[in-house]
Amino acid sequence: MSARPFFVALLLLAASLPLSAAAQVYMCAGDTGETRLSQTQDAGCELYLKSGDEGALKGVRARIRLPWAEEEARRKQAEERERQEAQLAALPFHSLVRTAATEFRVDAALVHAVIAAESGYDPLAISDKGAVGLMQLMPDTALRYGVKQKDLRIPARNIHAGTKYLADLLELFGGDVELALAGYNAGEGAVVRFGRKVPPFAETRAYVPRVLDNWRKLRSITL
């Protein structure tokens, strides 16, 4: 590869790794004439960029994605996922939440946010309207998912049904979390009836931002 195409290729790979984080960078010629970048000065390598030096890209507002940057990014993402799981694992009933969230492809942090708003993690909670358990399911809604009223106080069954209901609402409203939460609180029929918008009910208008705020807080402490 000639020097010019190589330089152009670098520009096309403009991305997020600051050059200052790369320390010394060397350009090395391979046995077959190919050119590569390296963090170590092996035989046949010349200094390409020193720490903090953007001289090779004068006048160009770009940063180079060095060959090892993607591996480093994947490592950091894996560490973040592990940290997130550790943070969420400290919450009550997380093993049940994780199982249901994984099965129905819902963010576990969102399920936790719903539980916190609905019942405060009380599996025996019963609302004035008759909603039961952790995710405060109405008996008729629970029956859609094969859970009888007498079983709604069983955390595993309640969370499983509630998470499936939340997943169905997310699918119904095209992944719109706000509308899914509105449907969870007021019923999906009400959301549709009001033009696929959050219904003008005081309870629902207060509920949706409260859950969203809980969700954002959970995600911010785990990322």
User: How many helices does DSSP assign?
Assistant: 9
Which CATH class of the largest domain is shown? Answer: Mainly Alpha
Radius of gyration: 26 Å
Overall 3D shape: elongated
Q: Overall pLDDT, averaged?
A: 81
Give the termini distance in whole angstroms: 40 Å
Low-confidence runs of at least 5 consecutive residues: 1-22, 56-64
- The fraction of residues in strands falls at 5-15%
Strand order of the largest sheet: 2-1-3
- Name given to the CATH architecture of the largest domain: Orthogonal Bundle
- Taken in chain order, the helices and strands follow as HEEEHHHHHHHH
Tell me the helix content. Answer: 40-55%
What structural class is derived from the secondary structure elements? Answer: mainly alpha
What secondary-structure arrangement, pairings included, does this model have?
Blueprint (H helix, E strand, L loop, with lengths): L2 H10 L12 E5 L5 E4 L6 E5 L19 H21 L4 H11 L3 H11 L20 H6 L10 H18 L4 H10 L1 H6 L8 H21 L1
Helix pairs in contact: 2-9, 3-6, 4-9, 6-7, 7-9
Provide a short characterization of the protein structure:
The chain is 51% helix and 6% strand. The protein is mainly α and 223 residues long.
Spell out the key features of this protein:
single chain; Lysozyme; 9 helices; 223 residues; mainly alpha; elongated; three-stranded antiparallel sheet; disordered N terminus
